[in-house]
Amino acid sequence: MAQAAAVAKPPAPHRRRRASATPRRLPYLLIAPAALLMLGFIAYPVVSVFYFSLQNFNPTKPWRNGFAGFDNFARIFTEDPQFWDTLTFSAKWVFVEVGLQLMFGLALALIVNQTFVGRALGRALVFSPWAVSGVLTSAIWVLLYNSQTGVTRYLADMGIGEYGASWLSDTSTVFPAVIVADLWRGVPFFAILILADLQSVSKDLYEAAEVDGASRIKQFWHITLPHLKDAIVLSTLLRAVWEFNNVDLLYTLTGGGPAGETTTLPLYIANTSVDAHNFGYASALTTVAFVILLFCSMVYLRLSKFGGGDK
User: Fold this and answer.
1) CB 126 within 8 A of CB 205
2) pTM for the complete prediction?
3) Is 190:235 a contact under the CB 8 Å cutoff?
4) Is residue 230 within 8 Å of 306, Cβ to Cβ?
């Protein structure tokens, strides 16, 4: 009887709690190695940048290396006019690029969302530039803008422009030229995200609006656009950050020229660190760029009321 009672005795409470807690912790234990690796790969570079921003660090001039305090930051805001020039161009670049990409991406998404013959092929053609890498995109547009074999030669054959004209070397044409090149790659990003959200809009809303006599413009303004609010806010924010950090396209097409006309702040940072080997000052510039992006992102999300759910 004593043995039977011992067998029938329920397990201790702390054992039940331990057994039930293990399954809840198992997913976190499984992802812990990957999370630690990601944290290491992200945290170490960030901390290193903040550390070197307070240092004078130039491998080519080791006798000047040492703790600089906030001297690098004071130099940025008081002694470096190129910082303000590149920051101004970066703001102009982001505003024009993101605005045009949103406009054309929204138009393309509305077009390919309609039912027509060959819609699948049309969607593939619209989205294909986004699958092309940045380096390959730059190579394509370098060939297109070549003064001897590119677009300008064929335009000159038709009597438009002059032979040997280089749009990337002329200060009056370089900005529109790089804008068009980046539009080709960036518009499909907006089209993809907006089309995905468009397909979730209930058709009953449009049918009810048609019954009430609402025009296509009113349907777009009162049904489509409010439904796309979160997708537009998120896509513009992501694309603005990416365009602000754009280096590969501008570096390949113009190298920041001519005469520094297309030098963004990240490109200036790259030139300062890679070409001038002034890693301390470049780290300070990077820290300032990080703070600017963080502040602008927070303000943008606050003003747009992202995730508010009021569609």
Assistant:
1) no
2) 0.82
3) yes
4) yes
